[in-house]
Amino acid sequence: MAFENLTERLQQAMSKLRKKGKVSEADVKEMMREIRLALLEADVNLQVVKDFTKRVRERAVGTEVLDSLSPAQQIVKIVDEELTKTLGSETVELTKSPKIPTVIMMVGLQGAGKTTFAGKLAKHLMKTENARPLMIAGDVYRPAAIDQLKVLGQQLDVPVFDMGTDTSPVEIVRQGMALAREKKNDYVLIDTAGRLHIDETLMDELKQIKEIAEPNEILLVVDAMTGQDAVNVADSFNQQLGITGVVITKLDGDTRGGAALSIRSVTGAPIKFIGSGEKLTDLEIFHPDRMSSRILG
Ligand code: GDP
Fold first, then answer.
1. Cα–ligand 1 centroid distance for 250 (angstroms)
2. What integer is the mean pLDDT of 238-242?
3. Residues whose beta carbon lies within 6 Å of some atom of ligand 1
4. Are the CB atoms for 119 and 156 separated by under 8 Å?
5. What are the residue ranges of helices labelled H in the chain?
6. What is the ipTM of this complex?
7. Does the structure show a pLDDT above 80 at 80?
């Protein structure tokens, strides 16, 4: 499971301190060195590591901590709080449109898990809000993606609007939006194409879809297994398109998990969901404090 190594390393770094009755500034420094290494090994972005360790150190060497009765516990608490802060502090909910439909556009590289997430989100909205979503199949470059979305639609009993692969995604979205308005669907979930790498044509197309659909949310779906690359991808999608949230998939896998820790700081966009498996029920709402506890073990 994700974070196992990081958890172990962080616990090791902090356990030395826990054994001590009195903690010196040198002890804190040594612990911070180990935490820093653990984070870097888990693929956390260097700048994020620097900011995080600086904040923890500043608070930890504060006299009220070192002179307190249980300095080690206090420092563990500080690590937890600062980790939570790095992850975004609070859960950020989906932005809804004041009038239906709320439009949510999924973007990301090929294979990140966009189509799967669209299905998971539809299921989640149906369960929690009794929603009546419509999904639009906009990934015309990967014919299997359209079929995949249709299969998900059948499983969930959710309509999927598609026009095959010969019409431009922009036109598909235009017509899909018109249908959703006519049928009074409360959510429109747009599955878009991804490429293996970010390219200009892809971004131009996404920008056009954004203009037509006026989405309330542009959710970037990234694969946690891609580590640092996920952070770079998030950064450039954000700069080009202005993402409103991030979905991190495959956190169930054997990932070092650093992406989850870096993405919020690097993009400023909140992580809204995490994918924890291939099944439609493997979706979790992202809670920074719970994720921090999970990482610290
Ligand atoms: P897309 O190209 O971005 O639409 O990606 P897909 O939705 O087709 O997903 C690519 C692969 O990743 C598929 O085999 C999915 O089953 C798998 N996948 C998606 N989300 C998760 C997840 O959270 N965990 C795991 N283990 N696999 C996932």
1. 7
2. 95
3. 108, 110-116, 145, 148, 194, 221, 249-250, 252-253, 275-278, 282
4. yes
5. 4-19, 25-41, 46-60, 63-66, 71-86, 114-129, 143-156, 169-183, 200-213, 228-241, 258-267, 288-296
6. 0.99
7. yes
Instruction: Specify whether the CB–CB gap between 69 and 81 falls below 8 A.
Output: no
CA 273 from chain centre, in angstroms, equals 6
Q: What is the pTM of this model?
A: 0.93
d(CA 38, CA 261): 13
CB neighbours of 157 closer than 8 A, spacing ≥ 6? none
Q: What per-residue confidence (pLDDT) applies to 1?
A: 59
Quote the tokens at residue 97: 């449109």
Give the mutation target among 278, 281, 285 for probing the ligand 1 site: most ligand atoms within 8 A of CB. 278
Which residues are documented as binding site for GTP? 108-115, 191-195, 249-252
- Residue 236 Cα to ligand 1 middle (Å): 21
pLDDT digits (tens, 9 = 90+) for 171-189: 999 999 999 999 999 999 9
Cα 174 from chain centroid? 27
Cα 82 to middle of ligand 1, angstroms: 31
- Find the radius of gyration of the CA atoms of the chain: 21
Asked if residue 215 has a cis previous peptide bond (ω within 30° of 0), the answer is: no
Q: Which distant-in-sequence residues (6+ apart) come within 8 Å of 182 by Cβ?
A: none
The CA distance from 286 to 175, in Å, is: 33
Q: Is the pLDDT of residue 66 over 80?
A: no
Burial of residue 121 (CB within 10 Å: 0-12, 13-18, 19+) is buried
